[in-house]
Amino acid sequence: MNALLRYLLLSLAALSFVYPFIWMVSASLSSESGLGDVLLWPVGFTWENYVTVFTKIPLDRAFLNSSLVAILTTGLVLISGAMVGYALARLEFFGRNLIFYLIIFTMTLPFQITLIPNYITIVKFGWIDTYLALIVPFALNSLSVLLFRQAFQALPQALIDAARMDGAGELRIIFQILIPNCLPTVLTITILTFMGLWNEALWPLIVIRNESTMTMPQLVTLFSVGGRAEGQLGVKIAAAVILAIPIVLLYLFFQKHFIRSMASSGLKD
Amino acid sequence: MKKWTPYLLVSPYILHFLVFVAFPVVFSIVLTFHRWNIISPMQYVGLANYEHLLNDRLFWQAVWNTLRFLMVHIPLQIAIALTLAELLNRTIRGVAFFRAAFFLPVIISGVVVTILWQQLLSFNSGVLNRMLTALALGRIAWLDDPDIAMYSIAVMATWKNVGLYTILFLVGLQSVPIQYYEAAELEGATRWQQFRYITFPMINPTIFTVVVLSTIGGFSLFVEPYIMTEGGPMNTTLSAVMYIYKQAFQYYHMGYSATLGFCFALIILFVVIIQRRYVEQEV
């Protein structure tokens, strides 16, 4: 195929992926009358939409909630994933294969089946409207266990033997010796988990009713579905832009890793 | 190392599995035989929930909506992703830029993408209809026409995810040994023959991955129709998860909602198994 045609097609595709976001940002900075335009630049530039969002909904609080939940949970996923992954990869014990099959089973289980019972569990624990409801169910995930298991299997036994000789305990071996030797895996898990948590809207909608505990996607969803945007499109779009910014910034910093980790997780399915 | 150390290490997993996987699966099956609004005690109703489900027009509507979604979404996804991957699979300048651009919608929350597209597709003020009007083609009710709305959502979902599948196909394409093409070239194979007999069989596993992930994605659809159309017009974009959500949290039919979830899960497993069979035969 002609190189020029190739570039033309690729550029057209790139434009169709990037243009809507440019439109979104400039629409959020436009006055209501300019909105329908095919704009690349704000029409009647104003910060009004952003001011309105913050006065109508506690988006700053939701931002803190989202950050807290995503960071804490990602940390717990890394810790628990490394512990279980290590046991499965490096230790002999009765029931090891059983646990491995349970993990595979969990991964193939559609979430629709556990949704309602999990909600009831949260109610019975008295966790409705608490951070625990947002954190604990996600504090361990099968993919991170499998990725850590794979990474730890690839490391030489000598590394572990030497550490044991020096009297290191198992936790020390995992977190001080092995983890620093598989940072790409840590990065992959961090990116996948953080992104998933940051964007999750359904679960918070189910377990959180109190505005002061809501996460960003939840609050923006309710704002957009409920009447509080009062048909002001610019305000709705401004809320969406604020929700997108943190993940886009992370993406710009870690672009290569984002693409690599998503690609590898997709292929392992 | 002490004997119980491994068990200590896997104990968080076991606890988590028991509470958030094993118990819910068992309890969801128990729930399907009960009527329960969470507040009053559970009431055993035998197979009533299943009977209700068989006659529930909305349940079958949601299944049908999902199938309509998948019929557009999957072929479109594969065609576009494969084309983009093929275009990228050459030594060209700016590959990194194009890859990054295609991937942008993948990382952004579905909530953002949905709000964005709701505006782009709006009948009166949407950018798309403005373009059509400018070209004197008339406007289309992308989200308000019962025959079209679900397909609009399918196209949006394709736009959101196609970057991921492009990368997957690119990995697949790059794993095909270049010698195969060279040999085929010597034998006088046309480009299409090269694609049909070399590329296609080699990327078949990737196609399968795309089909499975898209299917699961289609059955998990929630935020997109919830924000965009709230299931309308005339329930033509009501999704499975949305219906489960409504039954549980608007009507407090926990037993029936669990029955819906259970049956949808069975349908998903069934569809995925069929797909696997089919793909294995093809290869």
Describe this structure in words.
The complex is a heterodimer of chains A (about 270) and B (about 280). With about 270 residues, chain A is an all-alpha fold. Chain A has helices at about 5-30, 50-55, 60-90, 95-110, 110-125, 130-135, 140-155, 155-165, 170-180, 185-200, 200-205, 215-225, 235-269. Chain A contains 13 helices and no strands. The radius of gyration of chain A is 23 Å and the shape is globular. Chain B has about 280 residues and is an all-alpha fold. Helix content of chain B is about 75%, strand content about 0%. Chain B contains twelve helices and two strands; from the N terminus they run αββααααααααααα. Chain B has helices spanning about 5-30, 50-55, 55-90, 95-105, 110-120, 125-135, 150-175, 180-185, 190-220, 225-230, 240-250, 255-280, and strands at about 35, 45. Chain B has a two-stranded antiparallel sheet. In chain B, a hairpin with a 7-residue loop joins strand 1 and strand 2. In chain B, helix 3 (about 55-90) packs parallel to helix 7 and helix 9 packs antiparallel against helix 12. The relative contact order of chain B is 0.13. The chains are: A mainly alpha (about 270), B mainly alpha (about 280). At the A-B interface, helix 1, helix 3, helix 4, helix 5 and helix 10 of A face helix 1, helix 3, helix 4, helix 5 and helix 6 of B.
